[in-house]
Amino acid sequence: MSNRRSFLATAALGTLAAAAAPSLHSIGFEPIAAGAKHELPALPYEIGALEPHIDAQTMQIHHDKHHLAYVNGLNKAEEELAKARASGDFSLIQHWSRQAAFHGGGHWLHSMFWKVMAPAERGGGGEPAGELAAAIAESFGSFDAFKKQMSAAASSVEGSGWALLHYRRDDQRLIVLQAENQQKGSSWGSTPILGIDVWEHAYYLKYQNRRPDYISAWWNVVNWGQVEMNLNSAYKK
Length: 237
Ligand code: MN3
Fold this sequence. Notes:
Elements: H1 2-19, H2 56-87, H3 93-115, H4 130-140, H5 143-155, E1 161-168, E2 173-180, E3 190-197, H6 204-207, H7 211-218, H8 224-236
The structure holds manganese (III) ion.
């Protein structure tokens, strides 16, 4: 408990420091004006920046085609839900609610995913430090135990999905969950702060059916500084 208090005290100091920064930090997609359409965010680095771990062609198709499809799908679902409200015809509510969850989940997770990766010269790889390292050690016992759990979760997602590190605000713990597709398997009251996409579109061109090799390589591009910012943002909410 004393460790947790000290982590939270440190995190609170970090939050105060972050509050002085000029721009607000968003874990997933950026806030948009009421009525505005969702938009595909630009990648925060060049398309081939994560080579050799993640190849440029995979990044190009993944970002420009797959993520765009989730943005478009979310916009479409929200348009249809607005039409339903205007007309009073909710006969397709189940379909459009599911579409909103699937595409909204995809847009949010991919927006986070690009940000939690970086090439080595911009902080990718290595191990977490500071508050994040302390939180991981407290919640999982050690960084190595966390890494093994996260890798095992990613390896064993059935079909398409994600392994996600969440911050759960109620008890101030970090937990690892799987998400099938973009949304199934979620819990409530927790916020993902790090995730690995294990849909085949994320790795198949380079790694084919060797998902564990992709997962091993992915650890080399994790941007721990960004994950720590995400932890502070989730803590603040
Ligand atoms: Mn994907």
